[in-house]
Design brief:
It contains three helices and 33 strands. The protein is mostly beta strands. The protein has a 22-stranded parallel beta sheet that branches. An eleven-stranded parallel beta sheet has the order 5-8-11-14-17-20-23-26-28-30-32. The protein binds 2-acetamido-2-deoxy-beta-D-glucopyranose (2 copies). The site of one 2-acetamido-2-deoxy-beta-D-glucopyranose (NAG) has 4 residues, from strand 29. It comes from Juglans regia.
Length: about 400
């Protein structure tokens, strides 16, 4: 009797285990909410999300493989249980940039969210880029970011593609513990401000295995970013993987603990970069920044710290940056530089960079002359191979 009870208890536990350990998702298909091939997905997706979010058990919103049009949507939490959005189709944004504000698809205040599937978010940004050249015109963007994640926690984004965004492809803001895996991001090399993934005020963000080619930074890391790891990312075309720009605004929060490991850059304008504006309105810090095991193929400035970053006219370039950069390591970085400036470290005159290390650097320059290393307001420490030869500080 007693042992029977125990057996039944064990059997019940075994039956329960699969559903608790490997949560089974109920599926909500957007076609049941009126989604049609070449139709408007806005209302079906919004309604399917609302039901999934209220379900109180793991629920997947499924977008089958075909083409849809979608206006601006905000898919909001908090939700009563985990929600997955699985996109197998191609979803197109309005081509007219004026039909969207600063974001196209927003996921907001959701815990345990998954965005998955082999589908594509097509921002149709071609018109916006022509209007968004801030270097030449004062009436410029910002236009809509394709995918914006606000205050999303303990979540995953995997496999999906982001194409031709009007502005940033993905913006991660106020997020904690987010894994971004195997995503593909693509826009032409001359499309303005189409950063691949921009991270701000977030912690525990892990980007792995992405293919990113855009007209701006492949990944950019803004103020308040902590504990960010970027591995196995292919970048190019694009402006590289950047920490910054920092020092443009007041009340910027510290950047701390950034690792860029096992990444490859192909024909990018920069490789690994730290950039801060001169004449920062307030002080800031960027600390514990590691770049390791990186291959550069024909990259403009493979290793660069630029504290005199001034992409627009009218920077007060003579007033030094107040952002303090410290504990930086560049290790095992090899390949080819497209310019002679293979290593260029320009730090702030008022707050020189502290503890910058270069170890096993092997960057050749294929043009005429020698690859060179230049240093301003920094005394790096060198170890292992150094090609170009160490700068004379
Ligand atoms: C730099 O790193 C050292 C050792 O890891 C640490 O003691 C120091 O506090 C760091 N510097 C800053 C500004 O955090
Ligand atoms: C540096 O790279 C070149 C090829 O670009 C290679 O031939 C050479 O052996 C490398 N040097 C070291 C010390 O690794």
């Amino acid at each position: 009797m007693g042992s029977n009870c125990l057996n039944i208890g064990v059997i019940m536990l075994l039956l329960l285990l699969p559903s608790t350990v490997n949560a089974q998702y109920s599926v909500i298909d957007v076609t049941k909410y009126g989604a049609k091939s070449n139709g408007d997905l806005t209302q079906p997706l919004t309604n399917a999300w609302k039901d999934a979010c209220a379900a109180g058990k793991p629920t997947r919103v499924f977008v089958p493989k075909t083409t849809y049009y979608l206006g601006a949507v905000t898919l909001k939490g908090p939700c009563k249980g985990p929600v997955e959005l699985q996109v197998q189709g191609t979803i197109k944004a309005p081509a007219d940039p004026m039909k969207l504000k600063d974001a196209w698809v927003v996921i907001q205040s959701v815990d345990r969210f998954i965005l998955s599937g082999s589908g594509t978010f097509d921002g149709q940004g071609q018109t916006a880029w022509g209007l968004n050249n801030c270097l030449k015109t004062s009436a410029c963007g910002p236009f809509a970011t394709n995918l914006r994640f606000n205050y999303v926690t303990n979540s995953q984004i995997r496999d999906i593609k982001s194409l031709n965004s009007k502005f940033f492809h993905m913006l991660v803001f106020g997020c904690k513990n987010l894994k971004i895996q195997q995503v593909t991001i693509s826009a032409p090399g001359n499309s303005f401000n189409t950063d691949g993934i921009h991270i701000g005020r977030s912690s525990g963000i892990n980007i792995a295995g992405a293919n990113i080619g855009t007209g701006d930074d492949c990944v950019s890391i803004g103020d308040g970013s902590q504990d960010i790891t970027i591995t196995k990312v292919n970048c190019g075309p694009g402006h590289g993987i950047s920490i910054g720009s920092l020092g443009k605004y007041t009340n910027e929060q510290p950047v701390n603990g950034i690792k860029v490991i096992s990444c490859t850059f192909n024909n990018a304008m920069n490789g690994v970069r730290i950039k801060t504006f001169p004449a920062s309105p307030s002080s800031g810090t960027a600390n514990q920044l590691y770049f390791e095991d990186i291959v550069m193929n024909n990259v403009g400035n493979p290793i660069i710290i630029d504290q005199e970053y001034c992409p627009y006219r009218n920077c007060k370039a003579q007033t030094p940056s107040k952002v303090k950069i410290s504990n930086v390591s560049f290790k095992n970085i090899r390949g080819s530089s497209a310019t002679a400036d293979a290593v260029k470290l320009t730090c702030s005159k008022s707050i020189p960079c502290q503890n910058v290390q270069l170890q096993n650097i092997n960057l050749s320059y294929k043009g005429s002359g020698q690859a060179k290393s230049t240093c301003k307001n920094v005394k790096p420490s060198f170890s292992g191979t150094q090609n170009p030869p160490p700068c004379k500080a």
